[in-house]
């Protein structure tokens, strides 16, 4: 090189290095911004999936509630039937004591009543087992809904943090762009000064 001062040459090289470093940082920050955008999209998909799953569990919860009501009605009817049959057995016993000639017929009717009671007892036990199973499934569904609610809350918190990080990165990229423009302008001024110094010398 000829003309100008060595300090000015070194200043231009340092400025160019600084411009390159800023451009590298801008590229890195833009990559981080793109990754944050991808993370935000993934979390939004998880939130949608959690909301859909919670809606499905709510529908299942409603169906289980209806099934429980049905089981309770069946149990009530079975209990009423059993009470009616027990009353009928008592009447048959009274009639048997009052009329020995009808004893065989009354015994047959009593056996039928006992069989009906046994059948109703079995049906009642089956209904109670179904009710117990439905209650367990309802409890599990409620626990699942609470778990999904916690997951959705965590996902929303992560989403908010990523949105905030994205905004911060946007601001940093803007600041680095402005700094790069300022350094480029300074470099242009330095180059102009160097050329003028060379021309004067």
Descriptive keywords:
201 residues; mainly alpha; 2 helices; 95% helix; disordered N terminus
Quick overview of this protein structure:
The protein is an all-alpha fold. The chain is built from two helices and no strands.
Overview of the molecule:
- Helix 1 packs antiparallel against helix 2.
- The chain has helices at 6-98, 103-200.
- Residues 1-5 have low confidence and may be disordered.
- It is mainly α and 201 residues long.
Write the layout of secondary structure elements.
Elements: H1 6-98, H2 103-200
How many beta-strand elements? Answer: 0
State Rg: 43 Å
CATH hierarchy: architecture of the domain at 6-64 and 123-200: Orthogonal Bundle
Would you state the CATH class of the domain at 6-64 and 123-200? Mainly Alpha
Question: Please, how many helices?
Answer: 2
Helix content: over 70%
CATH topology of the domain at 6-64 and 123-200: Helix Hairpins
**Structural category:** mainly alpha
Proportion of β residues?
Answer: under 5%
Largest sheet: none
Which residues form runs of ≥5 with pLDDT under 50? 1-5
The shape, in one word, is rod-shaped
